Amino acid sequence: MALQKRFKGKCDETMLCHGKRFVQVMEEQSLNNREEEQLLLRRWTQRLDKRLESKWMALIIFTIISIIFASPIFNNFDYWGGAVVDSFLYSDWDQHEFYNAVPRKTIVEYGQMPLWNPYYCGGAPMLANPQSGFLSPLYVFVLAFGPIIGLKIEIFAHLIIGMFGMYLLTRYLKIDRTSAYLSSFVYMLGSMYPVMITAGVAIFWSIAYIPYVFLYYLKSLRKTASPYTSKSFEIFKRLEYVLLSAFSLVLMVFEGGVMPFIYVVSFLMIYTVLTLLHRFYLLVYGTVRRIKEHGIHRVKIDIKNIIPIELQNLALILIFTLLIGAIKFMPMASWVGGHPRLITDYSGFSLEGLYHSLLGREQHYLVGRPFQISWTGEQIPGCDFFTGVTYGWDENGMYVGWIPFALFLIGAVIVFKEHWKLILTGIIFLWLSFGNRTSISLWNVIHVFPIFSSLRVAQRFRIISIFCLAILSGLSLFKIKQILSRRSNGKYKTIVNITSFLVVIFVLIDLIVVDSPIFEQAFMYPPQQDFGNTFYDMFGIMPDGNFFQVTGRNGNQHRLMYPIFLLNVGSAKGYEASMEVPRNAIPRDSSEYKGEAFLWNTTGSVSVAYFSPNRVEVRVNASKEGYVVLNQNYSPDWKVEGSYSSRIESVNGLVSAFITPEEKNVTFYYLPDSFFVGYFLSFTSVFLILLGEAYYRFIRPRRSRQRAEPFLV
């Protein structure tokens, strides 16, 4: 019995040891499995990071997303812009299709620079029009495929350009790739871009260049870390980034984006002023502290610090922008300066409108909404600081969703120390977007100054607010990831990275689901193949291929400038809102119509022998001295050949020239002096810039190597 008990005890002891060993082995195996899983997850995230690291990969991702996001605009590939609701054509696409079709015809058919547009308002400048975009490199799509298809390709291209620019900017701000993708998606896939484009306000696709303007502005402030870099090389790199920022601004203007240009220049100015105030505060504070420590006689004040490099670079950016873009700025300033547009409309966000614009999931352009809307920019009952919406939804929509908005609020706290200038600038632009609705209105203050007095709709300042929100949402996500990883000593770094990746994917899907369908209302107008018959029903005139003008603005007909133009007919009372244009031409459907050229204070016969946008040749047979009048608005930039006086005069606001009976051929041509001055400044500036770039890139390094060779031998 004793032996049996002893054996049993040893067995129990052995089994217990084996059991403990088994549990220990299982625990080690489980631990190894967890470590292996974490290692696999870490390797997967590292592999994903490496794939996303390439800028080309980012470009491919943005291209694929843009195809998905903008797919509704290609559903009806040949449809025109706009939507017909209750026999009314909504959107400004007719106007911008017209703006793109006229330069194309001028270039392709007549081989001329699009300086004058004879097809609307009795004739108006084309190059000087702030909304004309034929100088843009992307206009090649319109030249190749026509305005309808070309403009759709441009919508798609600007999505890619804008997202890639925001990606480069946020990566430069030292945030990881996942957070950079978030900022890119929020900026370009939020409802602000699609709702403005759906409404046909094509000038606002130039917001895609704003990230590049700010990126190269920031890069121009960077100092080279290497102690072996020469001072001249540092200056060269600084000027290089200044020029890239200036080129980005010029591209905005060349695309007709003068208003976004004003917003981003204002943004840079406010950002720079905040920097200047901060530098001045540090200078004064440091000087006072040194005086207390060492006495006033031993303290030197460094005057150079009073003028920061940000202010210098901003001045250089603006100067180079004006020089490079002079071919557009000079004619535009000449015309708009003589025909200023003064806006007194009531506009601005209410708190209700701001909430629905930023967080409401109903963002379609044409849809009924459960709140009061003032469509005409007038203050009506129910529209105050708390309630109501001014203008259509294209001037208000900017959906980003709750997650980016929450990240922005968190980021305004946790990254305030590093990026307070960006946060305060965004808040200032949000204040501006409240317009007339606030008791202390910053909009009313700036609206009395030149340039700003011509701006319509205070809500458009939201462009910069969303730009700042997009950047800060990415910065906030990156900062949160850093805080969580630091507090867990890197233990949950992989989980944090995967979670942030899933958050970005969720935001992307949400933006596509909410905002992509907005494009469905962009191009709903079927091509007008038999518009000649419709035109006859409207005006009682059958087009014969020769140029003439009709009223073109009976009720909704001002929205038909593009189809009327396709018949080689002008809209004498056409629509133009970006600048003041006189409308003195006599339409053919008027009882006072005398022809596209006629005689004044004399008798005889006159006919148009050749017509083109910039040049018109007239055959004249006058019985006595008098005037031959061209049925186009007068401008001092018109010139004449074959006239006795050889000068242009105004007859009832129309172009005319004094003639004698001996003169049989008179040629009118439009060629503004401001175009020559602008062309010379732009060409000279670009030539000198390329010359300097070639010298520092190729000639100077070669000379440095040649000087070093004797010492190397």
What does it look like?
The chain is α+β, with helices and mostly antiparallel strands and 713 residues long. Among the domains are: 127-521, no CATH class; 597-671. Helix content is 54%, strand content 10%. It contains 21 helices and 16 strands. The chain has a four-stranded antiparallel beta sheet with strand order 9-12-15-14, with no helix packed on it. A four-stranded antiparallel beta sheet has the order 10-11-16-13, with no helix packed on it. A hairpin with a 2-residue loop joins strand 14 and strand 15. The longest helix has 52 residues, at 2-53. The relative contact order is 0.11.
Give the SSE map.
Elements: H1 2-53, H2 55-69, E1 83-85, E2 88-90, H3 93-108, E3 116-117, E4 124-125, H4 140-145, H5 147-172, H6 177-189, H7 192-198, H8 210-219, H9 231-254, H10 258-294, H11 309-324, H12 326-338, H13 351-359, E5 373-374, E6 389-390, H14 402-414, H15 416-433, H16 442-446, H17 462-487, H18 493-515, H19 531-539, E7 548-550, H20 561-566, E8 569-571, E9 597-600, E10 604-611, E11 615-622, E12 626-633, E13 638-641, E14 648-651, E15 654-659, E16 665-670, H21 673-712
Parallel strand pairs: 5-6, 7-8
Antiparallel strand pairs: 1-2, 3-4, 9-12, 10-11, 11-16, 12-15, 13-16, 14-15
Helix pairs in contact: 2-5, 5-6, 5-8, 6-17, 6-18, 8-9, 9-11, 10-11, 10-15, 12-21, 14-15, 14-17, 15-17, 17-18
